[in-house]
Specification:
Two copies of one chain form a homodimer. Helices cover 78% and strands 1% of the residues of chain A. Chain A is mainly α. A two-stranded antiparallel ribbon of chain A has the order 1-2. In chain A, helix 2 packs across helix 10, helix 10 runs parallel beside helix 14 and helix 13 runs parallel beside helix 19. The first copy, chain A, is globular.
Chain lengths: 509, 509
């Protein structure tokens, strides 16, 4: 059972060694650079990039998620049918949210790859990175413009302008970092062909700005074409990755990765940054909920005096469903985070496809504030209420099923992506699967319940949400009991409890 | 110049060693526990607490900051005098914001101390922690109730109820962790008197719930007294810390800390978690700004057609000041983060007093969305506009001066709290001081400019904000030039550039 800990420690040790190698390299490289003449001034104070990256992750994850607020704040009249309203929403605001989420995630992935090459920073790089962040946070606004005025080319021009400036800044970052090689990844530092790397990285980075430049020119001639170009920019990495994965699975053998080029799109994402980004999304979603409560559900002094005869308790009683909805949604977000956390404890490397599934999962998690708004907005036992619950179930289902997808994909190449103690069908393996399957199953079950039972209501739904943590505990006991029964059936001759414990260990290893 | 890196590496190595010691301890302690009979079942899968803490930090920092939104969203009529409106705001919403920020920070500090004792987690602890988080995110709502209905005891009862439940859960966490000693800090694990530790920690944790219990009882008898009790709960750690610090400075000698009790209130906070919490606050403040832009500044289709004759460009031109305000505010937040980041690169240990100053600095940073709202809300050249700029200057000034305070306090005990290369008056030291002094000076200067020049306007203010990064570059050059001149004046006999570089290094060390 101690393998988890020891494995982590080993990893840390390795990271630590690498860190040491990296940090010792500068003095060596400085002398090299000094003699070759490419680098003349003193290195100045370089810093570990850890905190800059953590801050960038926090910023990007919040920006990706926060665009759900305009969706959630859209008022839906009680008279209208929810379906129609949702369709109207779908065409514009949900579109803006999803587009923002995907494009911001693409920008984030590019940022991750860039800072896998540049491992140390100095003040100049930190300021350049902040300028990039400022433009990335401006992207959602350009999407809002595009969605509201799709026939006007101003939105697309603004968007392309931002992307081009971001691209140029990133190119500047690369040029700057290569002029001070002690900032770079150790692999590139020790390579003799730094110029090849530099040109390759610049090529990859400048591809997107060039496509945006084309799109902005086409926007004057033929607007639809520039939207198509933009869609290609956004989805190309996803589509190409998916096609490659399908092909490699169909043929049965993977293409050997080019060991020369570190900066290839199929390079796995840094696990630490995937976790930081996901944490940001879960945290902002959980807190957006209470923000609505605080802004909308504090009764007015005047209302309490006139409508409720000065009784605050009875005024608050009317908000009961909101509190229930809040706690239900918070529990759901918290437990989805908990499952994600458990999952990534077992993961050693995130491939691009796993990152893609994680993005999809997070995009649905970001939709939870919408589910929260919908489920407490409608009068009880109305048709709309049932449909709101169904929308919530769909959102939770897809958030959960994509997490399950990450696990399935990780199992395909478990030697590379998972810790050895979850490889085979031990207790940890079964338990992880049970954890991951819980939310999709519950969501699916609830969905069908709403179809059958017309008496199903939002409070019941929220009570179910709050009850799910108990299911985790029950699950754990069930898995243990099932394994114990199996053990008794298979080897009933061992009465010594110590041996059973040992065997349990053996199962896990 | 390499000391920074090497020092970091050394630290990491030490942390790493400690980590290894900790993780090896369980097997030893298990056998101990097994023989003494206090611990019978298998340890289960324990995990490093790193990610749980990062997620908690993100949640708590967002919750602390997000209550500025109701303040910023308060509409101030153009006719009213800003001063009066601000006074009305001050009494309720700003009060709620500050109270929330301080109480949430107290809860966070308690959380930090708790998880300095418990260094590993398992699923059960993770779920308990999430439940605590849920109740912490509910605290702002109880404050809103208290502020709106100060004469009703419902708000205070709800608040006390939440705090008591949080306290009981934390006590449960402690009891659970002490029943599985491999989850604990190595120092406590190897101690023989675990029970003493446990009782001491439980005493400290349960102090606050007990005071809240008293406050909730007094709320039925004499409401004012329970508010006083609550204020004591919130401010006691700060006041006692401040008094202790004053006394130790006045007498000139510090009390020797009790080496037996790890869990004392004066225990320095984990630097990593202070950074994570601060990052969360800066990130949410930076993104709250763009949220307002996206929700409010996308023109209506109908308006554009009727008012602007279908010209989107002229419609957007009216929003010009908003964009400028956005970029100005983002730059300010970004650079305050940058200064904070530079400062904490030099810090090795955060004492409680430094943590307190950091909290104050962050509370003002959280006020920046208010500054942003005020500065672009009023018509140009009105009296209100100038006062809005003055409010912004005050907020920025206090955010900056508290950062400077952290540095000054750190210098008081520099042997413990700072890296050795910034101890003496080297280049890094001067440069750090210049960075820290920049924002307070600019804010103070701008404040006096607004008093003298009646033509000073919000766009000029925002352009100034955007221009500050250039000041950083100029500063760097100025510091270098000044040091070079000093060197020439003091030792003009050395013509060899190599020697100068070496001497520069010597200055830094």
């Amino acid at each position: 059972m101690e393998e988890i800990i020891e494995h982590h420690v080993e990893e840390e040790e390795e990271e630590d060694k690498e860190e040491r190698r990296r940090s010792q390299a500068p003095s060596f490289l400085e002398s090299l650079a000094g003699s070759s003449g490419t680098h003349s001034n003193t290195p100045g104070s370089t810093q570990s990039s850890h905190r800059l990256l953590a801050y960038s992750d926090a910023l990007i994850s919040i920006i990706a998620t926060v665009m759900i607020l305009p969706v959630a704040h859209t008022k839906i009249g009680d008279n209208e049918e929810l379906k129609e309203s949702v369709q109207v929403l779908l065409t514009t605001k949900i579109g803006v949210y999803l587009m923002t989420f995907l494009i911001v995630t693409v920008a984030w992935a590019a940022h991750v790859r860039l800072f896998q090459v540049i491992v140390r920073i100095d003040d100049c790089l930190a300021l350049l990175n902040l300028a990039c962040m400022m433009l990335i946070t401006f992207l959602p606004y350009t999407f809002s413009l595009m969605a509201t005025f799709p026939e006007n080319h101003l939105g697309i021009l603004l968007f392309c302008g931002c992307v081009m400036v971001i691209g140029l800044m990133q190119a500047l970052v690369v040029v700057y970092a290569f002029s001070r090689p002690f900032l770079l990844n150790e692999q590139i530092q020790s390579s003799e062909d730094q110029k090849v790397y530099k040109h390759h990285i610049l090529q990859v980075i400048l591809k997107v700005p060039i496509m945006c430049f084309l799109a902005s020119i086409f926007s004057f001639i033929f607007l639809q074409l520039s939207y198509v170009l933009l869609a290609i920019v956004i989805f190309l990495p996803y589509i190409s990755q998916f096609l490659k994965w399908c092909r490699s699975k169909a043929i049965g053998q993977e293409e050997p990765p080019d060991p020369e080029l570190l900066y290839r799109p199929s390079e796995p994402l840094s696990k630490e940054r995937v976790e930081a980004f996901s944490d940001g999304v879960y945290a902002i979603v959980a807190t957006l909920l209470i923000l609505d409560i605080c802004e909308d559900n504090v009764p007015d002094r005047e209302t309490v005096r006139t409508v409720y005869n000065g009784s605050l308790v009875s005024a608050l009683r009317d908000y009961g469903p909101e509190y229930l909805a809040y706690f239900g949604s918070f529990v759901t977000v918290g437990l989805l985070w908990f499952v994600h956390h458990s999952l990534f404890l077992h993961v050693t490397k995130t491939t691009r496809f796993m990152g893609l599934l994680n993005t999809f999962s997070l995009a649905f998690v970001g939709g939870l504030p919408l589910a929260y708004q919908l489920t407490h907005e409608f009068p009880r036992n109305s048709h709309n209420e049932l449909e709101a619950i169904q929308v919530s179930c769909v959102i939770i289902f897809f958030a959960g099923i994509n997490q399950l997808g990450i696990w399935v994909v990780a199992l395909y190449s478990e030697q590379e992506t998972l810790h050895p103690y979850v490889h085979y069908a031990g207790r940890e393996h079964v338990f992880m699967l049970a954890k991951l399957a819980l939310y999709p199953c519950v969501a699916l079950g609830t969905f069908f319940l709403t179809c059958i039972l017309s008496k199903f209501s939002a409070p019941i739904f929220h009570l179910m949400e709050i009850a799910v943590p108990l299911a985790f505990v029950v699950l754990r006991l069930l898995v243990r009991a099932a394994l114990a029964v199996l053990r008794l059936l298979l080897c009933p001759e061992r009465p010594n409890p110590r041996t059973v414990v040992e065997e349990e260990d053996a199962l896990v290893i």
